[in-house]
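User
New here, help please:
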Amino acid sequence: MTHSHSTGLPFLKMHGLGNDFVVLDLRGGLARPDAGLVARIADRHRGVGFDQLAGVEDCGDADARLVFWNADGSLSSACGNATRCIARWLMDQTGAASLRLRTDHGMLLAEDAGGGLTRVNMGPPVLDWRAIPLARDVDIDHLPIAGDPVATGMGNPHVTFFVEDADAVDLDRFGPDHEHHPLYPERTNVEVVQVLSRDAIRLRIWERGTGPTLASGSCSCAAVVAAARRGLTERRVRVHVPGGQLLIDWREDGVWMEGPTAIVFEGRLTPAWLA
């Protein structure tokens, strides 16, 4: 990313339930950051720190195009909480009550849910093994992995485990072991789910390329899709993540996610740091 002007690089810091993002406004044709710069910004000691970085770009057939990166600099095609946060920011800018946002996963509809909450349709779940993607044709509802997990795609790959006690899982070991499972050629997000009732679950998250996070929209969606497919819950479920609560509603037109957003601060990366 070359910024000839001497003012540095402006950014926004946002979070959805503690799942935090750096957002770059790239509208007007600014270049995308390279993987090295993304990873530098992600450093919580020497940079800004984030779970995901998002770029907002101009788009001919939507209100904006969103592109996402993980903390290690790799691209991600979906990031639900960032989508909600950016949607709220754009709706506040324009006064619109709904938006169409283009992502690598497809066109996402966002709307004001009232009471300060923002709702986004994350699209239908991906239930074809090739598209998730998995390494070979297996029963996605009962993967040949210890713990009998479920595979789901939400524009990114997921593996969901159902356990009696989510707190009993050593996520720092369990997460990386399964993120890199050979059944997932592009690695995977890992969810540990404790079913509380027909309409509530507890969720702990290990995000691909990032690690443990306080919340994740795509992981919450995948967990509810997996629980509903297993018959453990209904399709409208309150998801308790470490950072708070999301309402997930798997409807005919896609998986809707509703929850709060926060814009924490606006900042500017200095020219000296960028250099």
Q: What stands out?
A: The chain has a mean pLDDT of 95. The first strand starts at residue 9 and ends at 16. The helical segments are 35-42, 80-94, 171-179, 217-229, 271-274.
